[in-house]
Design brief:
Elements: H1 7-18, H2 32-39, H3 52-63, H4 107-112
């Protein structure tokens, strides 16, 4: 749910969310991927991060064709570690296509916030 929604908006979204047929995978399963595929439900990664974790979530979502939604944590950090950090616009978000996580962090930001153990 969007933290900025009113109680009325949340109540209105309930029927749509119930139609998603959400299922939890058994953590003790020998083969959780096939267990999930057998449910024939869409894939929604649950990873409320806003830096490298969000980029990893986007890559995972892009690799699985059944993904319908991606969780996004609405925060405004002091600065973004990635200069062109993808953020949702009009209900969509672009998946970066560079190597690894899709983009490289800004070395100036890394240097500015570096903490020596």
């Amino acid at each position: 749910m969007n933290c900025n929604w009113s109680e009325v908006q949340c109540q209105q979204a309930i029927p749509e969310l119930l139609d998603l047929n959400v299922r939890w995978l058994d953590r003790g399963s020998e083969d959780p991927e096939n267990q999930w595929r057998a449910t024939r439900t869409s894939f929604t990664p649950h990873s409320p991060h806003f830096g490298p974790g969000f980029l990893a979530t986007l890559q995972l979502a892009g690799a699985e064709e059944s993904t319908r939604f991606v969780e996004y944590l609405y925060v405004q950090p002091e600065c973004w570690i990635y200069p062109d950090m993808p953020r949702p616009e009009d209900g969509t978000v672009c998946i970066p296509d560079g190597k690894g996580l899709g983009m490289d962090p800004d070395p100036r930001v890394l240097e500015r916030y570096y903490v020596n153990g």
